[in-house]
Amino acid sequence: MKKILFSLLILPLLMSCSSGNHNTDKNIQLIEKYVEAVENLDYQTMESLLDDNYYGFGPSFGDSINKTEAVNNWKDNIENLYRSIHYNKSRNAAVEIPEGENKGFWVSNWGELNIVYKNGKEVTLWANSIYQIIDGKIIKSYTFYNEADALNQLGYVFINPNDL
Known about the structure:
The chain is of the alpha+beta class. It has four helices and six strands; from the N terminus they run ααββαββββα.
């Protein structure tokens, strides 16, 4: 009798965990595929993983981009700016936000990226991108990295206008 009672108590827990883990695994695989497309400079695969209603934010406050703009931006950067992008390190974590404006399934990817430009200059940066996933597509993302660090590595100098 104790075994039956134990089984009845544990079975729903196992079923709910396996369902959540299945979504978690699928969502992480989607982001791994997206990261692989970034590394392969494959904007067509990137486009296929974005929902038609995709909206991206960052890295700066106020930066935003829709799917068409994102794909055109990647295409232009791949054809004219980047020679290669490599994730030296890449880690993912999945979470479900149960309520509120950003309710849903999210995967956070943080990594150390090495970017080689067509002019031969290189940048290594830490980046964190957080992706909301609905029906197997990326519908929203927030990306954070230190733009000033990247520009500094490219040789840009920052001057306070008051010092001119």
